[in-house]
Write a structure and sequence with these properties.
heterodimer; A: 461 residues; alpha+beta; PmbA/TldD fold; six-stranded mixed sheet; 10 helices; 20% helix; globular; B: 452 residues; 3 domains; six-stranded antiparallel sheet; 9 helices; 19 strands; 22% helix
Amino acid sequence: MLSKTSIERILAAALSHGGDFSEVYIERSKVSSVSLLNGIVESTGSSLDLGIGIRILEGDKCVYVYSNDLLHEDKLIRMAKNASASLKEAPSGKTTVLKPMMEYFSQKYEIAPTDVSKSLKVEKLRKASETAKAYSELITQTGTSTADLERDVWIANSDGLYIKDNRCRTRIMVQAVASSEDDKQTGYYAPGSGEGYEFFERTDIDAIAEKAASVAVTMISAKPCPSGKMPVVIGNGFGGVIFHEACGHSLEATAVGIKASCFTDMQGQRIASPLVTAYDDAKIAKEWGSYEVDDEGTPSTTNLLIKDGILNSYLVDKIGSRRMNVPSTGCARRQNYAYAPTSRMSNTFIAAGKSTPEQIISDTEYGIYAANMGGGSVDTTTGDFNFAVNEAYIIRNGKVCEPVKGATLIGKGGEVLMNIDRVGNDLKLAQGMCGSVSGNIPVDVGQPTIRVSEITVGGQA
Amino acid sequence: MDNKIRTLIDDLIKQAEKEGFLESEVYYESDSSMTIAAREGQIIQFESSDGAGLSFRGLMNGQMGYAYTEDLQEEMIPFLLSQAKDNCAVLEVKEKITVYEGEKDYPEFNGYNEELTKIDYDFLSKTALDLEKALLSYDKRIEAVDDCYTSYSEGELYIRNSKGMICESRDNCFDVYLGCRAKDGDDVQTAGKGWVFSDLSQFDLKKCADHVGKKIISKLGAKPVASEKMNVVLDRFAANSLLSSFAGAFSAEAIQKGLSRLVGKLGEKIADEKITLIDEGMIEGSPLSIPFDSEGVSSKRTVLIDKGVFSSELHNRKTALAAGVSSTGNGFRAGAKSSIGVSSTNLHFENGPFSQEELIKKAGNGIFITALHGLHAGINSISGEFSLMTEGFVIRDGKLCEPVNQITIADNFFDVLMKVEALGNDVEYTSPEATHTQSPSLLIPDVSIAGE
């Protein structure tokens, strides 16, 4: 690791020829994974990632350089000087004195996952694979795996901030494939946590395997989904991906700060149905998308995005804060040292309402029940979003009927939020990876069961 | 490559033998890049990077264990060897995996253009500023160029193993990405496009700006259409993204694991006889050529679908051994950190006889599709089903008419192969728009479109 004085010299070099703020981000990560196919260990991985990113800001302009080479301070100083020189300003004699290092523990894990022998993990994954296989004769393939990450991060900046953060995450993935003569359908669950090996230990992977197998078996007998505009009831948990895509991304300063978002300049205005209250909360203990401190060293917050349908707050990082004249909300994140941080989501969810899921279904004469969602994407400028439904059923006369496959939901963020006409009382979070300008990061999506009065459903029928 | 790295790799292979690995291999990748972003007449972002990573794999107890590091010090050798050894201990792969002894002659290919090394900060920033200006001046309705990037990057790959095989390559390129928004009344649209240039003489600034300008203006006023089954023409970009989403179905790895609809279909008719699908590593005059795979096997020309018949799978050395055939040179790593899997090199449908205009005319009435969205989620890569948000133009009486958006397209890739009515003649590998997967424009009848 670089010494405190080395970091001070790099921060000063980064301001030598321009820039009003410099920042150093150092990361050392251990990643370990093991995956089984049909109960046989097919691949394992162990890696050590190491790198440094140096960022310079001049107003809202950004210079970012990174390298894997932490051994040669002289090279890093040169890199920082060159980066600063790109701003083409007169030489300055700025120096930085760092405060004493403050240590954070974004994840307070009990058992470091990379210390645990892979053979212990294999046993449990193998058993889950057998469980999925035994669920039905229709299950022809199973995939079970786990991956974990231990990451030490050091962040220092020219304001004197100097912190270390200890991070750790564990994820378990189960996939089951059901086959018929001419079709294959997949069920997939991948819970994750901001914990160490203890999460793997306490998780009932067999139960997850059964759930995955049941989705695959249900969907193999499903007919093609009907298409057109109709009411859709979206199940809790991963269903929250609709809010993540239809609204969350468009509230990020990355888009709002340059007035490229469909929600620009709408603070205090109605952007959703009065039933909708939504948060981005990075402070939920042990959650997959949580952290104590963001990748700019700002402590995390519970950010009330929408209150009773009124836009309350955006997701703002340091550059966004300069562009929008509001404080950072502690949401600057990045995949790793190869990316400059930017405004991102953490655990983003629609808060619980009053209806029971049963009431919502029984109030719906005809429509789709999207029980289980896949991923999606959005154009933050137009608000056009799309996402896939992994497990869907027809609702007829207030009852969940036959399964349908191959459904995609599309719409415009602004419209779909207004069309939410039921919000359930069964809030649940689910884990996923979110890809955007600063790479892929772990996030939670979440919601109770909700109903959208009208949305375009794309299916084959 | 740094001499220190060469020494580190030598020592690693030597020590692996001492530690009891019967065979070993090192895969080293480094890259550096410079990227500029311009907005509102200013350089708002400059990124520069220098990265390297080293992956070791070694054979012990009949298993090939992997380990990866970005900390490239001699002190990391024990970490790599102990991690790889631990991984060997839990692996249960049935096929015998070995490292490759290499070949005498590899196809000649130079992906490194000295002329491009002249690209510096000043060139990238001037080009980015000029691109933004050119695109803004295309039409008053273009409000902002939110993404205007220019970038230079170069990379180096070095594979060496205990059987004496050494494979090396270097490449570099100049990239441009332009994305903008336009507004007409309440209607807001976005459009973007990227190019990769391996030769500066191919770069025409005005052409790039005009392309995106034309694209976005043509999208203004887009609306959904009514839901029904109709004739669809996929332009070559939309058809490419569909083909690349399902390319994995032809991998012997997926087939042997039972994770492809093509299990047991070798030798059978799986497509209309108008379809021939080829994987070809070396393409004359193309900067996308790939001389060897991540195992050091020279690349080949493999016909996957021969006039509608599924004629070959794509193999690496492991899947080839299991199937009793030779590797087709498709043993690739998804990145230095990954283990060796199977991927295509340059995969393309053979051109058909028709121009895009002729396909539109043949379609009569329907939709012309220019992009598919949400490909990471809206497809079932095993069953072939897809349901995706899309956009394009109405085809009426054989002519392109008003723009369409907020619709979905849904079908099954394997059904599309069977029912494709006509193929365009617009695959080209030497253009800066070329990607590793290429399809000509396709006319497909009876496709579900959902909208109003």
